[in-house]
Amino acid sequence: MYRDYILVLYDQEGTKAIVDEITSNVEFKRYHIQHLDLRNTHDWQKSFKEVLKSKDNNPKLIISGTSLNHKQWYNIWETAFENKIKIIAIVDSWQNLQERFITCSKERSNWPTIVCVIDKKIESTIKLIKGMESQVIFIGHPILSRLYEQRYRKTKMTHNNLLYVSEPIVCQREKYDATKLTRLQRSSFSNLCEYASIQGKDISIRLHPRETNDHFVQYKLISDNRCKVKLEMSMTKQDLLDINWVAFGLTSMLLIELHLSGSNCISLLEEKANCEQSFFKYHTDIIPRIDSKEKLLRLKVDEPINTSSIQKDPNTFIERNGHKMVLNIIDQYYSI
Length: 336
What we know:
Elements: E1 5-10, H1 13-23, E2 32-37, H2 44-53, E3 61-64, H3 70-82, E4 86-91, H4 102-107, E5 114-117, H5 120-127, E6 135-138, H6 142-150, E7 157-165, H7 183-199, E8 203-206, H8 213-223, E9 229-231, H9 237-241, E10 243-249, H10 253-260, E11 264-267, H11 279-282, H12 293-297, H13 309-312, H14 322-335
């Protein structure tokens, strides 16, 4: 067994992105890190157990995700504990916090050794989960923390187009259809098209990872030639963040990242829309919100949008040294 071997398991892109951000720091070079994407694994139990049987790469520590696939994670943690492997579990979102540990609560066992949370505001919620036996540690959101620290370090070009960040959010009583835009998407984008036509602006659209060109076609139909609509998929996410935009969306993480990177961002989430499960439940004022068509049409695009809310927000997800906290945990385990 190599003393410096760590296995990272995930079934959501958010977990991978956070772990990649943490382990990209130079201090982690002393550890060998292997990833196992459970989304691309037909039989995850077989693949996982094969890794554990390896004499050369048998981990002493696993960094895992947490998701609504709680039964899968419960079984993974059980297998890890049977092999005397410690578990660091990452809660990578503000959504469905208690649901991630339902099986552990019911079975009263197989809790991760440590649960790392990305926001102080959700730390208490995690600690109050029924039967919680894990040590809960706040590490901050490493990606948002980096963007916040770097937001004024680059000279950025300003894009003339408005940016719409697509996100499939369903309203109450609306059945989700992965092939179609939701009612919130259709209404918010239609309002934005009317605004763009008045302002003489074109709209660039960034699709959600779950969306396809068929969704872009639906957006073009909604625009009804009121303004030009362009699909921005050739740009990487970092390309987008390196540009100053006037960006619109609902509650997506990319909209938050753009805001923290210095772009002027506005949420078009309707006043009656339920966002109880999102980042906006905990940070209601960090991004200006225009919740009606009438308010949007009164917006003057050439005037600076008030972004002072980022200074007013407690920023309870910002922690410059989050990676060091994780590293200290790992060093302690490997020193035993």
